[in-house]
Amino acid sequence: MSIFRTKYHWAWFFGFLIFLFLCPFFISNYVASIFNATGIAIIASLGVQVVLGYCGQITLGQAAFLGVGAYSWTLLAVKLHFPPLLAIPAAGLITAVIGVVFAIPSARIKGFYLAVSTLAAHIIIIHCITHLTSLTGGATNGLMGPVVRIGGISLISDRQKLYFIMPIVVIMVYLVTNLIRTRFGRAFIAIRDNDLAAEVMGINVFLYKVIAFAICSFCAGVAGSLWAISSRLIHPEQFTLMDSIWYIAIIIIGGMGSIMGIIFGTVSMQLLREFIIIFAPFLSKWVPSMSEALSAAFTAFLFGFIIAIFLIFEPRGLNHRWVILKIKYRLWPFPH
Q1: What is the value of pTM for the model shown?
Q2: Domain limits, the chain
Q3: Are 264 and 317 within 8 A, CB to CB?
Q4: 161 near 229, Cβ under 8 Å?
């Protein structure tokens, strides 16, 4: 049951931490920005994994809660002068409270109606962010966050921000991994597998669904805080419904009910996104009849095509392939 069962696991883990510490010295700001975006997406996807992969509920409002976290962190840091590190969990708690407000009615319904209720949460939150101009700046100006200073050092470049963001990513992955190993995680899995049987066994299904949504919102709040630190200027258009669908796609590609699947799915989707950004202009040049709008549509088509391929041929995601590879390695030279 241990996360790291052998000395080799610990060696790989510490080697990975050393890599994260040293890589800012050898990468450009552009690559560091990709690392930061990947780390933020991992934290946001952790919340979706808790709700969708472990508790069996669906959410289409994660991007909106990400926006709540971003605006909460910025307002706490600018208006109330919270320290940057203290403002992150505070923004997460604020987002979790708002998530509970929407979870209480949503936890009583299932299926299509649950998806619609979370979609309504996204629309309501983005509408409030857009029209509360005195707090958020609205859709015209947005909101400018402060420059984070740690120990007298200003985090201006993406490589500097990488040292701030990645430790929080590692901590959040560790916390959620251990959360799933507690009675809360076992209750979530029981509800996912059969909510009626879970209720017969004495599990308060409604309460645990609300807790799952609260954890999901807290992760979104932390990810939104890091997004505000990374981009500084935040705007309602940065938190779209397509981003919420993108987080669900990460779960599908990486593997439902797996923390490693989050990492595999996020890294794969981020690499695919960067490949499309680089490849799309060349595609429009190679095919003269293809306009820029058509090449942008090709992006959405490719995302949808890859999701469909995984749903048909590998519904358990990349993590399942990783588990099979580890089993073959342990049994080598006698794989069977």
Answers
A1: 0.91
A2: 30-331
A3: yes
A4: yes
